[in-house]
Design goal:
Number of helices: 27
Low-confidence stretches: 164-172
Radius of gyration: 31 Å
Mean pLDDT: 87
Helix content: 40-55%
Bound molecules: phosphoenolpyruvate, magnesium ion
């Protein structure tokens, strides 16, 4: 960069600073800015286009184009050169705009006489705000220096508190972060919540993008980078030898933080008049824009590292530490791009709701949110960009909808819905102690699913008869190394203590597929749901399975023990796993440990093959529990994680119900106790159908027990059985419509 261009940039920024400091109406100020840039860059046209909505850009101010085109000329994202700059978040620098791919002529602007075009995105940390354009008559490409200068100006514009506030009232453009926004995501945990946005990693606020003394700013930047490097080194020293993944990440950070290109680009920005913070943020914005274009997973990860590194640096520069000092509001609704299960557990039950920009139904965060019964909406695109700390927010986990800054009408409707739910809860509480006896009998045993110590109080409050499924993998997922046997034994003992007389069915480690342990080398499997998971891992890596079985035996310490093996696909797997448990019982006895009073060994039926296993499997298993989540995905060949197909096949599809009925019959033949512990057991209509085809035990999330019991107690199972039979004979695909009608008649 030449000294001349550096001083020209500094002068431009200096004047921009003055304009921004002057009191002026939004539009007037915007006009002044375009005039000033045109003058300083010695170009006849300078225009600012801003987003009117997510897909439309509007010419909001211009120097040089026709006045009457302001607030009239609009283009869609990707349309014309301006639309393309915004879409790709990359500058377009052309000597002859008309020859450029995607060019679209806007007659109302009078731009036909201008040949050269330079457009740069106005963006803030991956949020597209608009496009800044300079145009001139002669056919010439702008120099790199000029492109850079315009980018720096765009950065300063983006940093304005409310870019929308520049625009006059008549223009009907609302300032961002003020209007109500409805975001649609996916349901990960049902429930509704009203509260205030609490950002997991709030954006560091850069209050002053300008700096008068670049030497001071360069020094501040270098000091902050040095401090950053020291902290990375300290973290590296503190790492144990087993933590190789963390080491890799930190080493990548270290490499990036010492990268000459990164540092020199920021120093160059400072040379042009930006403050150290603004320079870091400019680089971060560029990295985020690149991230949205890069498909290569490795590169995306590196850009993500750069993003994290920039955040750390910004925190050091602004003094806003990891704890940014933002107080948790009352009724906090956590907002994050994504979050790990450990971090979520640390917030615990203080949260009213969670909204994630990414996430998946089977992610660890989802598992934890479910265990804590906190409403969770995932894949809520743009939530981290739209939400500011403290914004009022409504989370509708029943429909996967988030209302940010809702208006009164929406808020009132939402409160009505919440009040109705609260009423229903009261009703459920009143039947907590009574059994789920159907109209002319039988009684259905209702158990709850759990996975954390924090779940256990729900045993009492929900009225569950016991824990029908204790998912032991959560303890493995929330740690960064394999838990020790003594730790597990202590935890399992606490679970049994808390359950008291009520039985707990412990499922051995079910990892693989979507549940990846942070400290386990990820397997590069083409199809993880059909891959090396659950009992397959247990039987291949016997050490962990044995250790877990020993921990369970020691935890029982003379009490009854119930163990269930996940994802059994054939009899031999069950008998081998069972053999391991029997061996461990012998070993523990030989070592002098007290054996459990009784031991029940069961299997999860999650693959269709097991329904057709030889009779001796049904005889040998002390109990069987249908894992409907997995069973359904394999029955219909529809990935439970894939939003495109997940909901395509109805649980009340008669083929599926007929298949389940076959399992019931086989268990009846051998008198093997059978239960259903997938998510569907917690849906009242499904639960009634399962009971009608012969299930006598269901295990579900604690919050579902009330609604399921309420409906079961009003159900005549004979009637439902006839309904299913009639539907089957009539040849319809699903019994849902008939069941809905039946429910309607029930009142
Ligand atoms: C199931 O597959 O239905 C089940 C209960 O197990 P998970 O959801 O943990 O795979
Ligand atoms: Mg399963």
């Amino acid at each position: 960069m030449s000294d001349r261009s550096e001083s020209a940039s500094r002068r431009l920024l200096g004047r921009l600073k003055q304009v921004l400091a002057e009191p002026a109406e939004g539009q007037e100020r915007l006009n002044k800015i375009v005039r000033l840039i045109a003058e300083e860059m010695n170009t006849p046209v300078c225009s600012i286009y801003l987003f009117r909505d997510a897909d439309t850009l509007e010419l909001c101010a211009t120097e040089g184009l026709k006045e009457e085109a302001v607030h009239e000329t609009r283009m869609r994202l990707g349309e014309g050169l301006v639309g393309r700059v915004a879409l790709r978040t990359q500058p377009i620098n052309s000597a002859d705009a008309t020859k450029e791919r995607g060019f679209r002529y806007m007659p109302e602007t009078g731009e036909e006489i201008y040949s050269s075009f330079l457009g740069v995105p106005i963006q803030r940390l991956g949020e597209r705000l608009g496009v800044l354009v300079v145009q001139s008559r002669e056919s010439r490409k702008h120099s790199d220096d000029e492109v850079y200068a315009v980018e720096v100006v765009a950065m300063v514009l983006a940093e304005m508190n409310e870019l929308g506030a520049f625009v006059g009232e008549g223009a009907a453009l609302a300032a961002p972060h003020q209007q109500s926004v409805l975001l649609r995501g996916n349901i990960a945990q049902e429930g509704t919540a009203e509260g205030r946005a609490f950002l997991h990693e709030p954006r560091v606020v850069v209050t002053n993008p300008f700096a008068d003394d670049s030497d001071i700013e360069r020094k501040r930047l270098r000091d902050a980078i040095a401090a950053l490097n020291t902290s990375i080194e300290e973290m590296l020293v503190g790492l144990g030898s087993a933590e190789s993944d963390q080491r890799q990440v930190l080493e990548a950070y270290q490499m990036l933080s010492q990268s000459k290109g990164w540092v020199s680009r920021m120093e160059e920005d400072i040379g042009r008049g930006l403050s150290a913070e603004a320079a870091v943020e400019k680089e971060q914005s560029a990295a985020r824009a690149r991230m949205s274009r890069v498909l290569d997973a490795y590169l995306r990860e590196r850009l993500q590292d750069l993003d994290d590194l920039s955040n750390r640096l910004l925190r050091l520069l602004t003094g806003q530490g990891a704890d940014t000092g933002v107080e948790m509001p009352e009724n906090p609704i956590l907002i994050a791009r994504n979050i790990g299960p450990g971090e979520l557990l640390a917030y615990g039950r203080s949260l009213r709701g969670i909204v994630l920009e990414e996430g998946s139904v089977g992610s660890h965060a989802t598992v934890v949110a479910r265990a804590l019964a906190i409403p969770l909406v995932i894949n809520a695109k743009r939530i981290t960009v739209e939400a500011l700390s403290g914004d009022p927010i409504l989370v509708d986990g029943e429909q996967g909808i988030v209302h940010l800054r809702p208006d009164e009408y929406v808020r009132n409707a939402f409160r009505d819905k919440m009040a109705m739910q609260a009423k229903a809860q009261e009703r459920y509480a009143s039947i907590r102690r009574v059994p789920a006896t159907t109209v002319y009998g039988p009684t259905i045993a209702l158990h709850m699913n759990a996975g954390l110590m924090a779940d256990l109080p729900s045993l009492k409050s929900s009225g569950a008869e016991g824990v029908g499924l204790f998912r032991t993998e959560l303890q493995f997922l929330v740690r960064n190394k394999v838990p020790r046997r003594a730790e597990l034994a202590a935890l399992y003992a606490r679970v049994m203590d808390a359950a008291g007389e009520r039985p707990v069915v412990f499922r051995t480690l079910d990892i693989g597929s979507d549940k990846v342990l942070p400290y386990m080398k990820p397997q590069d499997e083409p199809n993880p749901a059909l891959g090396w998971r659950a009992i397959r891992v247990g039987l291949d890596r016997k050490g962990v399975l044995r250790m877990q079985l020993q921990a369970l035996i020691r935890a029982a310490n003379g009490r009854p023990l119930s163990v269930m093996f996940p994802f059994i696909a054939q009899y031999e797997e069950f008998s081998e796993a069972r053999r391991h448990l029997l061996d461990q019982l012998e070993r523990e006895e030989a070592m002098g440990h007290v054996l459990p009073e009784s031991v029940e060994i069961g299997a999860m039926l999650e693959t269709p093959s097991l329904a057709f296993a030889p009779r001796r499997f049904f005889e040998e298993a002390d109990f069987i529990s249908v894992g409907g989540n997995d069973l359904k995905q394999f029955f219909f060949a529809a990935d439970r994680e894939n939003e495109l197909v997940r909901r395509r096949y109805d649980t009340l599809n008669l083929s599926f119900l007929t298949f389940l009925e076959g399992i019931v019959r086989r268990c009846e033949e051998t008198r093997t106790p059978l239960s259903f512990c997938g998510e569907d057991a917690g849906r009242p209509l499904e639960a009634v159908c399962f009971a009608a085809i012969g299930f006598r035990s269901l295990s579900m999330r604690p919050a579902s027990i009330g609604p399921v019991k309420h409906l079961l107690r009003r159900s005549n199972l004979e009637e439902v059985r006839d309904l299913i039979q009639d539907a089957r004979q009539s040849g319809v695909q699903s019994v849902r419509a008939d069941m809905m009608e039946w429910l309607g008649d029930l009142g």
